[in-house]
Amino acid sequence: MLRLEKRPQPSRLWTALTPILAVLATMVAGGLLFAALGKNPVEAIRVIFFDPLFNDQVASFARPQILVKAGPLILIAIGLSMGFRAGIWNIGAEGQYIMGAIFGAAVGLALYPMDHALIFPLMVVAGALGGWLWAMIPAILKIAFRTNEILVSLLLVYVAEQILASAALDLLRNPDGGGFPGSRDLSEWDTASNLELIAGSGMHWGVVTAFIAVIAAYVMLSRHILGVHLRLAGQAPRAARFAGVRPGMVVFLCFTVSGVLAGLAGLFEVTGPAGQISIDFNVGYGFTAIIVAFLGRLNPIGILLAGLLMALTYIGGELAQFMLGLPAAAIQAFQGMLLFFLLALDMLSNYRFRLVTREAV
Amino acid sequence: MIQPITRRGFAALTLAATLPFAAQAQDPTKIGFIYVGPVGDLGWSYEHDQGRLAIEEAFGDSVETAFVESVDVGNDAESIMTQMALQGTDLIFATSFGYGPAVNTVAGNFPDVKFEHATGYQRDHPNVSTYSARFYEGRAVIGHVAGKMTQTNKIGYIASYPIPEVIRGINSAYIHAKKANPDVEMSVVWVYTWFDPGKEADAARALIDQGVDVLMQHTDSTAPQAAAAEASILTFGQASDMAQYKPAPRIGSIIDDWAPYYIQRVQDVKDGTWESGDTWHGIKEGMVELGEFTDVIPEEVRAEAQALSDAIAAGEYSPFTGPLNKQDGSAWLAEGETADDAALAGMNFYVEGLTGEIPN
């Protein structure tokens, strides 16, 4: 008889292997789903995973789009992973992302149509500040009153959405927009626009910042005492206290990092790909980043790869919709399978199968 | 049957943007659609998809259509339309207000691809057209019916976004409900979404709790109908007939019929006569249709509704005819004066009698 037995330590081999297995399992299960919908499963998988990267006709546009999508996901996920390692659950990155965009855009629009080299850097600072301030609400409430940060940060997303709607309708509304909601198009105002740094590459400042964040996080976690403290706080809070880690400080730091990075992601998005503050500016990057953080095992390099993979399924999924006529819901189910299989297969790294012979009673 | 765009016969990517239109004339005309909700919403996106199917029916093998559903505004819309353009699509229908900036950006990059933007106003390039329907004409008729049918004198209205199109609908419905029943009050709830069954159902229940017994909506799902069925109150189908809720709670409906316009525009592209323009059709042209009024409504009210609809179609009556004041009491339209299209297109105020504020 097979029995599950907890491993004394998670298996390193399986930890590395399970993401790959999960992707393969998703391909098989997704293929079955697509076949059931009357599509050629091999073709569908090819359009989703390979065409955006290697098909000559689509790749030259799709590849940069993968970076554009992956940039904010990676940036936010890196910030969240710090907290998740320490057992601090910032679920409200979407709200911090929105506030970063609003703060940054507001500073830029206040100076419109001035032209100065410092305007964009100023907006970046304001964006970071916006995300940070919004993250400080759950952080301070947790430190001072021991409130549950999951609940507070999540609910603040909906508050941020209301502020966003109000900003698009009133405060930041384009005075030349004929009364329609939405701010001026920042991407068309050179001073404040965050466009591709190299034409056709998809690389904008947000993507660059995401890569820098990956490297910084990697160095910090592997080389800096702060990385050890974070992990300790998550795995053994009591031991962490003996080691001189102040829990309040950990909460403050984790929310600072995740809030700032989410705010920056929002700022780079509103000045670049999105272009303007609109009522439905946010499209769920802050929530998807949670999946990316776990898909990447809270490891900076893993998050980088997971963000790119997630972005690939988005771009490939859109291609599959209009090239093969697959419904959007099937693509979403497909993306859901990826997380499902990853979590299910996680069992393999934490547990092992033992064959036990049953003794006669 | 969905006919996806295949990659057969595509021009080389680098040339696709600059290839003269004539070179593609032999191939089927490729038409792309982007929808803000799922095609299965049985409301707004569903009706646009019916228009797409009507194109396939009318042109057969000489067209290929494809669609992407539930497309977020902003970068996603831009990315998908760019992909469509790169794949040799000749005509793209972007079927929600929010796609405006994306449509105009992509249209600037692909001058040979024609763009049709529903309910929009931005036409920055000669290859962008905008089109919409005079939904407010239909709302006048169902507003009248709602005023006659309410017992509690409370009508609920689930509104999506505070843009002129939606505000026009609220005003038109209110004016005609009030004419039919001077005691009527209207409560508006803003849900900031075009399609979210959960939020729409919550809004419906909140309104029902306030004593509303007739419900109107400017959102796309049938969730409000389901909530109304539970509470035994009355509703109207929105965008689609929503006939599955007949004869009650759904006692009437406004149906968007895009097929004639879509077929015409495809024909224009095929003939090379497509031009940028702004189309605004109503009951007369058939873009706005009134679904069957069920016999839950007394016969004389049905007759009044029909007469109102006929008068609008014949151009004898405009839903915005003075005397009308704005909400703050200031004069808007004098006795017998009617609002012109420019005033309607930018409408950002409630008429007198409506309570609450337009969010800003």
Task: Provide an overview of this structure.
The complex is a heterodimer of chains A (361) and B (360). Chain A has 361 residues and is an all-alpha fold. Chain A has a domain at 62-277. In chain A, 71% of the residues lie in helices and 3% in strands. Chain A contains 13 helices and 2 strands. Chain A has a two-stranded antiparallel sheet. The longest helix of chain A is centred in the N-terminal third of the chain and has 30 residues, at 56-85. Chain B has 360 residues and is of the alpha/beta class. Chain B folds into 2 domains: 13-133, Rossmann fold (3-Layer(aba) Sandwich); 135-256 and 288-345, Response regulator (Rossmann fold). Helix content of chain B is 36%, strand content 19%. Chain B is built from 11 helices and 14 strands. Chain B has helices at 13-16, 44-59, 75-86, 100-109, 135-149, 164-180, 197-209, 223-231, 259-271, 299-313, 341-345; strands at residues 29-34, 63-68, 91-94, 114-118, 128-133, 154-159, 185-190, 214-217, 234-239, 250-256, 278-281, 288-291, 324-325, 331-333. A 6-stranded parallel sheet of chain B has the order 2-1-3-4-5-11, sandwiched between helices. A 6-stranded mixed sheet of chain B has the order 7-6-8-9-10-12, sandwiched between helices. Chain B has a two-stranded antiparallel sheet with strand order 13-14. In chain B, α3 runs parallel beside α4 (100-109), α5 (135-149) packs parallel to α6 and α7 (197-209) packs parallel to α8 (223-231). The interface between A and B is large, with 41 and 43 residues.
